[in-house]
């Protein structure tokens, strides 16, 4: 027991020292020469590892961007200041998965526990961004009686428009898509803001609602015992929560299912994230219910779904297919040793590290033989690029899929495949992810040597098994219907309502 106590104490001290060292490094200024070394390092790693680096930008133009950036570095910068200079160049590559990790302050367990006992400052609202305007569209706790539709004009006396313009340059979609940024930026806006300004206990915002301006002070408050008990309850994992992939942070489910009418003719599946966790059980039970109900219509909603597991979307497609299908084309990598550059021991606890060390030889050989060469290119072996049989409970009726600018990555892969195969009618907005695929799959987690900024690089070129559009844009819906901020506030859903109306007309015609 004494040995275990000593190990625990040593781990605690090591963790505290690591956090202190990280925060000191984050606050330090790095000489220009070293920052330029980091720029060269980042570009070199991209050239070595990224399988489609010049998909949306010519090499000459990207060379110029990196060279121009180096010319602007003429004084020492903190890692955070450097991030705001380098990330716009990375975003200019137009690969939505490709992004530096913002260098944040780290917190000790004691500091984290203290924050958990307080309410959020900005996280208690839902937001909407249109052009350079930031709006509150939901006020969950009725703070200061702020009404949905209220515009935030400034935060601590700095115009919100300045932040939007600054942060927008940090985000890119795949290719020349125009719908993704506003969705992703509203979710990341205050991540960027708190990285810059820290987690303060109060903030002053100037608002505008119905031509009336107000100055409001937001404050973190101590949570009541009831709220803390509720938080604890939300974290418990019941069988239902597991199957529907419950997310305590948002008090919502990643997957949900219901019938939209009394006679169960319209089945509705909402997937917020293809997390894979317990997805087999969810789809098995859901499609059995649909089959037993003999529902002729199915709506799959992947709006605001940023993607996730290829395994899950391949499994989902098997419930929609009538014959064997291949979801994706063979996935290209830059070299045969690429699968071994995935940071196997990343984020391992000492115990996990010990177990991983034992398993490493098996992992090494599996990865070493996971590639093959064809026509002078190297490909990674994937289950999703092999023929898959339809599931025995596969749905045979009519399928509608709801998409918008927040449908990204795996959401775009499956919707591009569904559209190409004419298996579904897509309704909504152009997806945020590209129609012709993306670069992701798994990552090599690089760290810039001097600024120590983390730089994950996607290693797989993942493309749906379709006839490519070469549009360099997202998946375009068959029926384009946009959703306004007022629709969201009024809880109206014009995209879903269009589908329900279309089904109603079709059912009427069948009855004639």
Automatic annotation (TrEMBL):
One of its GO terms (biological process) is proteolysis. PROSITE patterns: PROKAR_LIPOPROTEIN (PS51257). Residues 227-482 form the Tail specific protease domain. Pfam families: Peptidase_S41. InterPro entries: ClpP/crotonase-like_dom_sf, Tail-specific_protease. GO terms for molecular function: endopeptidase activity; serine-type peptidase activity. Signal peptide: none annotated. SUPFAM superfamilies: ClpP/crotonase. This is Peptidase S41. It comes from Chryseobacterium lactis.
